[in-house]
Amino acid sequence: MLGAELLERDRWSREQLMAHQAERLLALITHAVSRSPYYGEVLGADAAERPLAELPTLSKTTLMAEFDQVITDPRLRLADLQAHLAGPDPSQSFLGEYRVATTSGTTGQRSIVVFTADEAAVWRAVSARPMMRIGIGSSLSRFAALGSPSPVHVTRQVLVPPGVPTPPISAATPIAELVAALNAQQPELLLGAVGVWRALAEEQIAGRLRIAPKAAVFGSEAMTADVRRRVREAWGIEPVSGYAATEAPAIATSSPDHPELEIADDVVVIEIVDEDGKPVAPGRPGAKVLLTNLINYAQPLIRYELTDSVVESPLPNPAGRPWRCLLSVDGRTADILYLRAPDGATVPVHPSVLGSAIAPLVEIGEYAFVYDAQGLHAHIVLTPGAAAD
After folding, report:
1. What are phi and psi for residue 160, nearest 5 degrees?
2. Higher-confidence position of 334 and 280
3. Band of the pLDDT at 263, cuts 50, 70, 90?
4. Counting Cβ atoms within 10 Å, is residue 337 exposed (0-12), middle (13-18) or buried (19+)?
C-alpha cells in the first residue's frame, strides 16, 4: 500500500507535490513547537506561519548538546540511548519501539538518530521507489548490505527490514571472505558503498564471484560511469545511486531509467546554501545542505546542517516526474581543496571531481591525495610546458 502511494506521486504535478510538502512541513513544525522544549523556545509559537528560510538552522553540535530538549518523546534521553548503544546488543529496538542509528563520527562528532518502526518503514519504501518503478518491489528477501560493520549503522537499523537475514559481512570484510559469503547467500538486492561493490563486480567478471542479483542500490561515494559499466558487465543490471544521511536515509536517488538523483521532495526539504547560509542557484555547488526531515517526529530535524557540497540541476527532470534533480553530490565541504587557476583566481574543488572540474582550468598531468596531521593535501604534477603557477 505504501509503495503504491509513493509511486502514485510520480504522476503528480510539481504544484501538487509542493502543496503536499507544504502540508507536511506545517504539520511537522506545529508538532515540534508544541512538543519539543528546544523548538518551542528557539522557533517560537509563530514558526509555522513564517517562511522556512527565516527559521534558525540546527547544527550537529547543537543537536547533541540539546538532545533531551529537541526530543518530543520524554522517554528518549541521551544518557539512556548512549547506554543502549554501549550495551551487549545495540541492534535491538529501544523501548520496543525505536530503532537507534548513529553517524560514523568522521566529521568529528557522532550524532544519534531515532526512528519509530513506522518511520523506518517509510524510509525503506522511499529507498525502494526507484526499483518499484521497474516492477521490483518488496518481494526481494535476500539482502547483501555492505556498509559499516556497526550494528547501529542506518543501513542495518533502518534500510534492511527487521527479521530479514543478512550475512555477518560489511565493507570492512576482506574481499575473499565477501566472495565466499555472497556465493553462499546468493543475494537478490545489493546495498552499500560504491567502492566495495566495484571491487566485487571485478570478482564477478573474473569468475570468482557467482551471484545473480536483480537490483543494486549504492551510495557513500560518487557513482562514476566506470562503476556503472562494470556493474552492467558483471550482473546485467543498471545500478541505482543514492544520496543519504543517517538523519534522512533517502534524500535523493537515481533510477534505472536515468542517472540523475531525484530529490525525495515528499519526505524532505533540502536547501542548498553557501558558507553564509544564503541560497545557491541551480548549477552551482553549495557549501552546505539544510535538511528538514518530514518523516521523523520523535526527533524533529528542521533546517539541520549537513556539510555536503551538492549541485542542483537547473534543468527540468529528464524523466518528466515532479522531483527536482541533483547533478552531483561531491562530498563533504571539509574535503574541498582550494587551488589557483592560471588567472590567479581561487577555485574550490572537491577531490571527487578534480579531474573534470579543474582540468579545463589548469594543466594537470597527475594528481594524488595525501592525509597527514595537517589534513588533506593534493600532490599535483603539471604537464610538460605548463605555466609554473
Report:
1. -95, 120
2. 280
3. very high
4. middle
